[in-house]
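JOB MANIFEST
job_type = single_chain_structure
chain_count = 1
residues = 250
[input]
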Amino acid sequence: MNRLQQLMAEAEAKGGTLAAGTAVLADSLSHSLGRFNRHWHAPPGGIWLTVAWPDILLPEFSRLLPFAAGLACCRAVRSCGIAAKLKWVNDVLVQGKKIAGILCTTLLSPARDRYHLLGIGLNVNNQDFPPELRGSAVSLAEVLGRDLDCAELAGRLLAELSWAVGLLHYDEEQALREDLSCEEGRVSLLLAAWRQLSDTIGRRVLYGFDIQNEPLFQATVLDLDPCGGLVMELEDGSRAVEYSGEVMYL
């Protein structure tokens, strides 16, 4: 993030703005944090990437950027011949273990322009996980039995991200043309593509905003609504739709 802030300042000092899709790739990260200040394990051998996207989408569509990032990462992993799946919202799983995580945040540039930062961490050749992750994380090298070219895979990931974000922009264009919102049942091509790669629908889950410290309830996932919300049936037969938070498979 510090490097992106620096690039934003440099561009604005010259009277311009940071180009959409500017990416920063790190060899490793130290003292990094994910959601809820959880440690972000990012040693050498993985892909640790942040992409800046200007806040040019309508709110209905910008809130789907995490789905676009997850879809792109999952497709990049699957291009290696691995049957990766998506867990709502954007964890990428292989054989039930997490191979990639995504953190989407917002940032104001020095000139007060708003950007969405799409942070993607993908375990590629790194296989030495800390004790708390050894049973729940996996890398591409571990699954395939060989190392991969991180630079080549990063390029493939960026290409997939360009496609997924482009699909989101196309969804917005169609919605404006048809004057139809997701609340009115508009079909999203992005969410349709995401749904095809997800294994969350039909699963029994534990739901919460911070699942490790404050789980809220158990439920069965019924579907994804047109706005990206998770439709769940609770134990008493009632339904809940949540647009943020996280789930743990039971």
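[summary]
The helical segments are 2-13, 59-62, 65-78, 140-144, 150-178, 189-196.
Residues 201-249 form a domain with the SH3 type barrels. fold (CATH 2.30.30.100).
exit_status = 0
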